[in-house]
Amino acid sequence: MSDTVIVRTLDDVAKLCKAHHETVRGWVKKGMPREKDPSHGRRWFYDIKKIEEWRAVRLSGNQGAEAVRLSDDELDIVKAKVKKFKGAIDFYKINRADLFVSKQMGYQKLADYVLSTMTHVEIDNAKLTEKLAVLKVLDVGSAIFYDKERLERGESTQNVSVLITAIKELKDKRERKSIPETGRAATG
Fold it and tell me: pTM of the predicted model, to two decimals?
């Protein structure tokens, strides 16, 4: 929209921006431009031009939950870029678990370094909260990559549980098939 259009309701914003009213409510939470109506403390003015500019910036950075709109030509360019990096993408797919281990070890090395620089005096000092916060972040980061690596290798608790259940079911099926039915007792 090139001309400035000022509206007073979110429903009007939704209509003019061709968006669902709940989407517009989400925009408000994400900082959509608006101005207070000085005559009414709880009412707002909405400048559609400013809102469209705000949305354009958000869409260009792909921030928020909105989809990026691409023409067919732009999509072909993106596909060509993806194809250019296909080898790197394939490498990542094949080596994800090992890459997660590498990241996990990096976090662990940083945690070890932070611990090695701490003295008993520092531990007793109340100003140690920053270092403890760093250790917590490093510990959580290491744990996340450990879980991702186990998941990639099929070793996560959930995967193992599913596999054990499947193995038990297969064993039960085999045992039922190999035991002959006894039928009636023989009479003689």
Answer: 0.33
